Amino acid sequence: MSASAQVSAWRPAVRGVVEVLHAYFPSHAYPSHTHDAWTVLIVDEGAVRYDLDHREHGLAQAQVSLLPPNVPHDGRSVRPEGFRKRVLYMEPDRLGGDGLVGAAVDRPEFVDPVLRTRIHQLHGVLADGREEFEAESRLTLIEERLQQQLRNRVVEPPDRRDAGVASRLREVLDGHLPTGITLDEASKLVHAHPAHLVRAFSREYGMPPHRYLTGRRVDLARRYLLDGRPPAEVAGLAGFYDQSHLNRHFRKMLGVTPTQFTRP
User: pTM of this prediction?
Assistant: First the structure.
């Protein structure tokens, strides 16, 4: 019998960190999705392969991966025994602007033993949960080192056709996460034909608008779950039809149900 996924997630009392996730996935593969936060990832067992903005990357135990906000990515184990990881989700304004986002998209992995050690130590402090000042201090040093690494990689972002249309649609979708919006309604707000909207968005972000919306709703559900709200209530708050609808998409995204997600 294969092992089950193990997930522990919580929101620490540290400004700038919106979620901490510790997980073991024996077989789960993430579908393409986005976060509205910087994702700082280390792997403790196994190795991970993922696509970021249409390019394949790999992450081993000696590395740190930094995934920027609102850029689509997926994830899967390289080895049959799965992988164990720890993740910090940091507020989008913590590391800087679009230039640094582009640098992270181009080269999201860092071979930096000092940085990895600092991240490992911060996770230990966050798991303890009693040393907020120490956690804030360690987070500050991590952010400083990440910014230094990114500034060394800054390149001018390429021009992309229809980027403005795609960006405006993303803003509309983000503004209608719980309530939802039809494609026709969105096309009137963005002033573009529905078919053009879908093509432009898919070309810019690597996924169709409906998949982006579902992923953002799962993200929203995670926040409510970390607030201590029950899954049945979270389903409606995050824009899902019912708890079964939430469970299906949550399991597809994270490999566990909402009740298995939050920290015991």
Answer: 0.79
